[in-house]
Each structure stands twice: as structure tokens, then as C-alpha cells.
Write a structure and sequence with these properties.
Layout lengths: L3 E3 L5 E6 L3 E6 L4 E8 L1 E5 L4 E4 L4 E4 L5 E6 L6 E8 L1 H11 L13 E3 L3 H10 L11 H18 L4 H4 L10 H8 L6 H7 L4 H12 L3 H18 L5 H4 L8 H12 L3 H9 L1
Antiparallel strand pairs: 1-2, 2-9, 3-8, 4-7, 4-9, 5-6, 5-8, 7-10
Protein name: HTH araC/xylS-type domain-containing protein
Pfam family, one: HTH_18
InterPro entries: AraC_XylS_family_regulators, ExsA-like_N, Homeodomain-like_sf, HTH_AraC
Amino acid sequence: MATKQINKNAEIVFSCSGSTRHNTEMISEEHCVVRVLSGELKVIQSNKTYVFGLGETLLFPRNQLSTLVKSDKDGLPYRAIVVKLTQDVLRAFYEQKKLQATLVSKTDYIIPLSQSPLLDSFFASILPYFDLNYKLPQELSQLKIQEAITVLRSINQDIDNILSDFSEPHKINLVEFMERNYMFNMPIEKFGYLTGRSLTTFKRDFKKAFNTTPQKWITQKRLELARFQITEKKRKPIDVFYEVGFENLSHFSFAFKKQFGKSPTEFVNHNLR
């Protein structure tokens, strides 16, 4: 069964993946709080991998890049509740409370949240909403988001520094960013946005830095990473292609052979000799 989402266009979503393994890319323009109800969620970022299971909760800060691997565990499919902390609701919350945060460097990682009865109670109160045969009223949705903000602030004293930061991505070092994040599969426009550049400026700066086009450079880097994973880490092509940024195995195999003269399977067979 394909991934199912209830209240798909709302701020509160029930996500269920009935497949044994389901991969997606995560890049959200809103902060998201995720509670895993069953199954397992692996979050792969440029510098770290996290694994979350039953009853665990995490915060995805907005505009962060992650690959998500959703898997069955203990005979149960991956199921989760996702609450989007929209910028409009966050602005209203902080303006009403007259709260200000001390600005700190933007986080480039997700935030695991400690176990808390407040979190348990919050998510338990949301579950009945998914039995509704109509969209959750906007007023109620906003109240629950405000409740989520209040809970987060009570269990993490540093959370204001993230939730009350409404700035857009500023111009950052393009080379460092691309070297860390080339494996994430997203449009070139999004790479530009996250480095604080328009598409035109991004392409111009990229050409200066790498003396080639973004797409050619990204493809080559992904293939080099895949070869390393296959030859040095002894991993199977089917376990590698998605993590390095390819959408399907056949396209990966074609590009790999074109680049290195041998298919991924031929590299594997050579390693087994």
C-alpha cells in the first residue's frame, strides 16, 4: 500500500506507510513536530543519522535537508502524526506573548525531544481528529498548534531560539553547503534558496566555484559517493542509490556505468572475487 496521509492539506497530518520500506526527501518551509506511533523512522542528514521508534518525538526545523526511511517494525507499519508549526501561528504566538529570543546560529540538525507526559497527552488528544469525515476547522487547528508550541517551550528551554527566528536563509558559503548536501534530491532552485541566492546568482556563483554546471557536478559527486559505498563499505546498490540522491535504481545503474565503465553489480561481483 502506498503512503497515506489524512488531512493532507492541513497543518496536522496522520502519515502511514504500508510498505516494508518507504523513502522520501524532507525539506519543509515550516517547522514540523513528528510523533512516531509505530514502525521506525530513520533520518539521514549530511553529518548524522538518527533512528526513531514507537513513542519517540522529534522536531524538524524548517529548511533542513533530510532523507527519511520509513520502515515496518515488530510487524507494524510506519505510522506517525506530523504537526506543522506554521510561520503565521508562530508570529502571532510570540507577538501576543511579547516574547523575544536570543538569536543564535541556525541549527542544521533535527532535535530529538525528551519523553514527557505533556507530549504524550498532546498527541493522544489529536488522535480522535483523524476519525472526522471532514477537514479539521482552522480555528481548532491553530489552537492545537499553539498548544504544541507551549508544550515544546516547557520541555526545551532553548526552543525559542528556533521557533521565533523568522529570517530567510542568508547568503552562505556555497562550496561548503554543496559539499555537505549534494546527495539530497531537490531542484536546483531550492539549493539556491537555501544558500541565500536567486537561481541566476546561484548558477553564476557555482560556475565560479566549480567551473561546471550544478547538475553535472552533483551527478558526479553522487556517483563517486555511491562507488565508495559499494567498493569500500561493501554495500549493495539497492541500498545505496536512494541515499546518494537517485530516484530509481535503473537510472542510477545507467549513470554509474556511463561514468565508470562498469555497472554497480559488476563492481559488487568484482569485490566478491
